[in-house]
Specification:
Blueprint lengths: L8 E2 L9 H10 L4 E5 L10 H4 L1 H14 L2 E10 L5 H14 L3 E6 L4 H16 L4 E4 L10 H10 L1
Parallel strand pairs: 1-2, 2-3, 3-4, 4-5
């Protein structure tokens, strides 16, 4: 080890019960250098305020600058059979405004070729805003494990 420390990121689910402004304050006061936000629902939740509230988005952006905390990742893009690409465009715009680096993507289309095409299209959309599209395999999604995620990548 060269003595270099790795930055720590406060994950969204760790402080999911507080709003994004409070989450930034918690990250800053407890020694985290980065933070993760959820902007789109993972399941049945309603819309998240960073997606719908322009004033809050602005306040959080200022809080990030003031504290030096950076946005590591933003959740969650679900790639299923039917996709609202206009929603994903707005999502990526908001992620870019926050200075985010990575978007967590859930592959939830059982048609792996279509899922790969959707992932490629989303990755291009994200890259245009300086974001990566990081496919997170989860046992309850169609991309349930590493082998399936790799297979999806190979189809693209």
């Amino acid at each position: 080890m060269n003595g270099m420390t790795h930055p720590l990121s406060l994950a969204f689910l760790t402080v999911a019960e507080v709003g994004p402004l409070e989450a930034v304050r918690i990250a800053a006061t407890t020694g985290y250098q980065k933070i993760g936000f959820r902007i789109l629902p993972a399941g049945g939740e309603g819309p998240f305020p960073l997606m719908t509230d322009d004033a809050l988005l602005h306040e959080v952006t200022i809080a990030l600058k003031d504290t030096g905390v950076e946005v590591a990742d933003v959740e969650i893009v679900r790639l299923g059979e039917h996709i609202d690409w206009a929603l994903f465009e707005r999502f990526c715009d908001r992620c870019a405004e926050l200075g985010a680096r990575h978007v967590l993507v859930a592959g939830d289309d059982t048609d792996l070729a279509r899922q790969a095409a959707s992932l490629a299209r989303f990755a291009d959309m994200a890259a245009a805003r300086g974001l990566t599209a990081d496919l997170e395999f989860m046992p309850w999604t169609a991309a349930r494990d590493l082998a399936t995620a790799v297979s999806c990548h190979e189809h693209g």
